[in-house]
Structure formats: structure tokens, C-alpha cells
Design brief:
single chain, alpha+beta, Nucleotidyltransferase, domain 5, five-stranded mixed sheet, four-stranded antiparallel sheet, 14 helices, elongated
Amino acid sequence: MERNMIGELNMYKEAGIKPNFSDIARRYGKDRHTVAAYWNAEGCDPGDGRSERESAFEPHRAEIEEKAALPGVTKKGIHEFLLHRYPDEGLPGYNAFTHFMRGSGIVIGPPGGPEPHPRFETPPGLQLQFDWKESIRMADRNGEVFEFNVFAATLCWSRRHVFIYSRTRGTDDLIRCMYLTIARLGGVPAEWLTDNMSALVVIRDGKRHRVARVFEFAKDAGFEIKTCKARSPQTKGKVESSNRFLSRLMAYQGDFEGEDELVGIIARIEERCNAEANETTGMPPSALFMDEKEALRPAGNMRMLQEAMGDVVDVPKVDPTMLVSAHGRKVSVPRRCIGRPVRLVCMPEGGIDCYMSGRLVASHAPGHAGYDPGHYAEAMEGKRWFGDGDIEAAAAANLELLSAIGGRL
């Protein structure tokens, strides 16, 4: 409609006739002053006059250009700096600042521009990227602080994510997480890419040395480990992106109860991340994974992989004490294991992992024997002589008594 109005005004111009602005405004639903502005602009868009004004950032152009050349700086950082340094100038918001930088040809980074990082895609089933989200500290509702790590793995083609809670991140932990990733995916990607994490490569006498156990496990499982340049997130960008999903954990700070709920929250984040459409593919990872799973190598004999992790001890039936024995130590399992068979994997560094129906149900640190406090509290639930509020305190008191008599279980 605006184009028709401009055409009509041009016809009047060519005929040398001044039109009735009020009549044209009524027919085209415009203000008469707007019609007059189009007439005076010779049929062009008259604009609003703002483009003729100098930007409020123009007096600071030299300073902005200087800051833009600094390594690691961002547009947002420069804008916040200007607001901090010149609080009385009423400088415009961030959108106006980015518009000024684009219009002025000011770019962030060295003169050559940022280093390009083109996307690199791999065929289905070929590559998995993995890393640790390290040294996370979170407190629950009761103020108990948990220090833990999350193993993050991502299939490169489908972007299918796997997140695994781990109290520590040694060699045993890495191999356990690799095993659990294979079990969860139901297959084995051909290549596993990461940087030179300490559980994989150690520096000794100024030289890099592979941790043989990890590479032997990889060989037994049927995949090849490849290392990329350390501190180069673009090289393993897909798993670095998955680490950003884990920032959602921070919203639960002080709003969960105990380690079990924390593990459950991580599992929910994994599920949600796999259900959301990926920005690059436009598809949820879980949907694409249905196709990629067919391209994975078969997982093979999971018992053999467990034996590659450590010594395997089968317990035919868990008795009501919830305690199981391996290598001269008794350790606990969750209440749901009573009356069912479990498998214990005794890791070389001294930890004991407990599996039921192929799923990890408990993990005990090197040297630990006896009840896990959470398992013991679970066993006390429903006992008539304890009120609900007394269970944890009673469990702790009884564990102290067991410790005092030497832990004879």
C-alpha cells in the first residue's frame, strides 16, 4: 500500500500538480503530515532523522578500537567497560553498541580477524568425544557439600550425550565411565577423541607416557583412543558444547537432598539434552541416535569387558544384611538388591564396583569397608523404633558404634 501511495505522489509530481494530502492520507490510512514528508522526500522513505545523528559512542571510537584489539576481549566486555568508566553520559544499550561497531567496521580481535574454526562432521558411528567436567562443588538442602566430577561423552554425528557422576577421576574412574558409556549406548564408536587428560597420558621426565591400562581396555572393547591438542576446545567442540549443558546443574545448588538425588538430577539433564533439538542438526540427538546406533560396532561380551576392568566376583544372592564380600572386604549394596544376584568388579586401584542386571548400583572407594551411610539409612527406613526424622541420626550413630568395635560385620 505504501508503494501505491508513493506511485500516486510521483504521478502528481510528473503532472506538476500539488495533491490534497488529507485526501491521500485518508485513502491510505496515513497521517497527512506523513504524506507531506513523502512528497518533500521526492517519493523516497523520509526516515526519522535518527540516522543523521552522531552515535553516542563516536567520541569513544579510538578507545573502543584500542580495546577491540586486546586478546580475549568481547563486545559485551567493552560495552560494560564504557558503562563503568562513563556512568554520567547515559550511553545506549548493548544492541546500539553492536550496531555502532558494525557500522564503524570495528572487529574484535587482532587485525587478521579471529582464527576460523570450520565445522567438522564425521560419519555415523565413527567418533565419540569425551572429557571431564572437573571439581564441581555443590551443597544440598542440609548444607552437606559434595565434591564430584562428571564424565561427559558425545557421539559426533547424532550429538547423543552421556553424563556419568564420579566422585574422583583417576584411571579406574575413566575405565569405569568408558564401560558404562558402551553399556548405555549399546555399541562402540570406532574412535574416542579427547585431550591429554591425566588419567590417559602422564608426564614423566618431561615426556608423555600413555597409561597402558586405559589403552588395553580400549583394545579389548574394540575402539581407538585419539588425543587432540590440549586446551583446544574447537578440536573437541561437540563435547565442550555438552559441558555447557552441565551448567544447568548450578540451578540446583542448595535444592537437592543427598548424593542419590544429585545423580538423578544429572541423569535428568542428560535426558533433557538428548530430547532438545540441536542447533546444528535441527534434530533431537535421541532421534538421530536411532540411526547412528546401527553404525556402532557391537558391544560384544560385557562380562569380558568387566574382567578387563578388574577382578570379577559373582554373588549369587544378596542376603538381608545388604553386605557382599570380595577380596576380604565386605561392602554394602542398595536395599533393592536383597535376594538378587550381583557382580562385583574389584578395580586395580582398590575400588569395588557393584553391578546388578548390568547396571552400576554402588561404587566403593579404595580401602572402604562396611556400610555406605546412604545404604544403611535406607535399611533403617520403616523400622518401628525410629521416627522418620530420626533415621539419618540413628544410622550415623549405629555406624559409629560399628566403627568403634572394629567394623566386625
